[in-house]
Amino acid sequence: MIINFNDFEKEEITNIKKVYKTAEKQLNLPKSIEVNLVTVSPSDVKEMNKKFRQVDRVTDVLSFPMLDSLNDLDNECDAFTREVNIGDIYICREKAISQAEEYGHSLKREICFLALHGLLHLLGYDHIKKEDEVIMFNLQDKILQEAKISRN
């Protein structure tokens, strides 16, 4: 998996790469997928949330998939590199900081959780229905646990 980082700290990059490598193995993902991760301000994420989701508030993470389905991977890959960008993930660092404090765990855990949560959305997972939420959140817990990203 190719991960493009914008405005992340070195330790965050290392931790997210570890989580994504674990997800790649657990989900049997092709190594040719590409993801863009960006940190944004509360005002920027609020503006994107309002524009694209019609929700007028700051949120912690937004995902914008580039594919309708992962079945499109072969059709959408770059002819030269054979890579395919599956989408963009925007994380609001200030919201992550406040949530880490609120939930009583580290910022490391919160950033990794949000990056993984965003990735799972790009891969087609969702949590609108209760049964889908159970699947997605169990998968998140399993991947974070295997990557040794604890709540402490």
Q: Which terms summarize this structure?
A:
152 residues, 4-stranded mixed sheet, 6 helices, 51% helix, 18% strand
Structural write-up:
This protein is α/β, with parallel strands linked by helices and 152 residues long. It is built from six helices and four strands; from the N terminus they run βαβαβαβααα. A four-stranded mixed sheet has the order 1-2-4-3. Strand 1 (2-6), helix 1 (10-26) and strand 2 form a beta-alpha-beta unit. The longest helix has 17 residues, at 10-26.
Beta-strand share of residues: 15-25%
Tell me the major beta sheet: 4 strands, mixed
What is the total tally of β strands?
A: 4
Binned, the helix content reads 40-55%
Quick rundown:
By secondary structure, this protein is α/β, with parallel strands linked by helices.
Write the layout of secondary structure elements.
Blueprint: E1 2-6, H1 10-26, E2 33-40, H2 42-53, E3 61-65, H3 73-76, E4 84-92, H4 93-103, H5 107-122, H6 130-146
Parallel strand pairs: 1-2, 2-4
Antiparallel strand pairs: 3-4
